[in-house]
Amino acid sequence: MNEKKITGVRVYILTVDSETNTVLKTEEEDPNTGHRTELAPSFQAVPPKAVPAPRPPVPPGTPPRAVPAPRPSKKAAEDEKADKGGPPKV
């Protein structure tokens, strides 16, 4: 019979107090040998999830605001009017 070595698998055994629902002991078991190692009390098998930054309260379905185009200066508006190619104003 061929034996296969299991790799990349972690097995954790938690001893839990059923009344208080607290973890009393955490062990890691090697699936190949069955050997158990007790882990530190502060060990967390699943790291806590990152909390996303709060979003501003915008109702769902609201389109994003459009950025208004820059307004031309009065000087540019006057130059544009003068450059129409019509007869000079007297």
Structure overview:
The chain is of the alpha+beta class and 90 residues long. It has one helix at residues 74-82, and strands spanning 11-17, 22-29, 36-38. The protein has a domain at 1-39. Helix content is 10%, strand content 20%. It has a three-stranded antiparallel β-sheet with strand order 1-2-3, with no helix packed on it. β1 and β2 form a beta hairpin. The protein is elongated, with a radius of gyration of 35 Å. The model has no long low-confidence stretch (mean pLDDT 77).
Helix and strand arrangement:
Layout: E1 11-17, E2 22-29, E3 36-38, H1 74-82
Antiparallel strand pairs: 1-2, 2-3
Please give the count of helices. 1
Question: Globular, elongated, flat, extended or rod-shaped: what is the shape?
Answer: elongated
Strand order of the largest sheet: 1-2-3
Sheet bearing the most strands, described? 3 strands, antiparallel
Q: Could you estimate the helical fraction of the residues in percent?
A: 10-25%
Number of strands: 3
Q: What is the averaged pLDDT score?
A: 77
Uncertain segments of ≥5 residues (pLDDT<50)?
none
What pattern of helices and strands is seen along the backbone? EEEH
Question: Kindly, what is the distance between the CA atoms of the first and last residues, rounded to a whole number of angstroms?
Answer: 108 Å
Structural class: alpha+beta
Rg on CA atoms, Å: 35 Å
Percent of residues in beta strands:
15-25%
